[in-house]
Amino acid sequence: MKEKKHLEASCLKLGLERHGQPVLSEISCTFKPYELTAVVGPNGAGKSSLLQCLAGALKPTSGRIELDGQDAEQVPAARRARLSAFLPQAEVPAWSLSSADLVALGLLPWGRPADREQRVSAALNLVDAQQFADRPVTQLSGGELRRVQLARLLVGEAPLLIADEPTAALDIRHQLQLMQNFRRQADAGKTVVLALHDLSLAARFCDRVLLLQGGQLRAQGTAEDVFTPALIGDVYGVSCEFRWRDGVADFVPLDLL
Ligand SMILES: Nc1ncnc2c1ncn2[C@@H]1O[C@H](COP(=O)(O)OP(=O)(O)OP(=O)(O)O)[C@@H](O)[C@H]1O
């Protein structure tokens, strides 16, 4: 089957229960090609659960995910693996693979492409991790390992990229580099969905923001729509300011409410 360059993913009244507790309720939203979407919200709001449903790692309890209008549950697993690439929030390597071999796992849905080594090397370059290529992943620092895992996400050709808190372990240079990478991926036509805690990075790089609270979609829209002191103050329980300059927002949390 012809590989897709672009993919639209939708959640239709998505609901999820974990251990009998509702953690997502009636979430309806669409992720489009050329768009970088940030999923934000307090701890436990349901960001990871939503991303896991989108990636096919969790099965919704109600509602559904559609990929270009087709019910995702009807898409064969091998095909779904070529449509979306997913980086979970925390992933501890179980084996002592080299970084290059870990990155190459991101190419598995496409078999063993002839230019595998060049692709792995290019992906490691994207995250400034080429110097770790031969190093066992068990001998990397937390942020170095995260960059190698990000290279695994970026090495393939999936039109939908999903990453859960990709910047969390990274220093500021590598956070900026990574967000620029994701921006370029979206500008080239990919559908990019990131769970983020850093509201300034979300405002600066993302086209759309989904704000979750208690498993519900509290707001969605542009950063200007969603990042108001009243709404963010209410959802996170902090007084705050957004200082906008040329489309760049500095988010300043001021005090607990
Ligand atoms: N493996 C699990 N089993 C049962 N409940 C879970 C599991 N993982 C998460 N939960 C619950 O699901 C809800 C949503 O969690 P989720 O991890 O999706 O939130 P989150 O917004 O990603 O949070 P954080 O910002 O802390 O990563 C929480 O109430 C959490 O306690």
CATH class equals Alpha Beta
Instruction: Give the helix proportion (percent range).
Output: 25-40%
Question: How large a portion of the residues is in β-strands, by DSSP E?
Answer: 25-35%
Number of strands: 12
How many individual domains? 1
Mean pLDDT figure: 95
Query: What is the count of helical runs?
Result: 9
CA radius of gyration: 18 Å
Within the largest sheet, what's the order of strands? 6-7-8-3-9-10
Q: Helix and strand string, N-terminal first?
A: EEEHEEHEHHHEHEHEEHHEE
Shape: globular
Low-confidence stretches: none
Kindly describe this structure.
The protein is of the alpha/beta class and 257 residues long. It has one domain (9-256): Rossmann fold. The chain is built from 9 helices and 12 strands. The longest helix has 16 residues, at 172-187. The protein is globular, with a radius of gyration of 18 Å. The relative contact order is 0.17. The model has no long low-confidence stretch (mean pLDDT 95). The site of adenosine-5'-triphosphate has 12 residues, from helix 1.
